[in-house]
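Format is sequence with structure; example below:
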Amino acid sequence: MKLHRILLPVRDIDAASTFYGTAFGSPGERVGVNRHYFDGGGVVVGLVDPLQKPELVPLSEIVYFSTDESLESVRDRWVGAGGTLDQDVQTYDWGETSFYGRDPWGNQLCFIAAGTEFSGGRFVK
C-alpha cells in the first residue's frame, strides 16, 4: 500500500492554485471546478475548495515535503507568494534541515532538505 493523494483545503481555487504554483515552482493542473492537482513526486498534492461548507477548516496536522532545491530558494518563493513562516530554515538535533510555514488558508507545511529527512530511529521509542 502507498499514499496516493493528499488534499489541502483552500478558498478561491484560482488564488490557491496561483499561490501553490508559485511556491512549488510548477503550475499543476485544474481537475475540477474546485480542485487543482500538483505532482508531489509520486503523491498527488491536491487543493480543494469545499464549496458547500461555509467555514474553511485547515488541516490539523503538518504536511511534510522533501526537496532537492535549496531551502532558501523554496522559502523565498513561499514567502513571496504570500505564505508565512512559523520557523525559518534550521537544522534540528535529529539531523533534519527544514523550515515550517503556513499557507494563506492556515494549512501548515514543512519543507525538508533532501537527504536529511528523519524517518525514525533513536528518537522513536
User: Anything to note?
Assistant: The first strand starts at residue 5 and ends at 9. The mean pLDDT is 95. The radius of gyration is 15 Å.
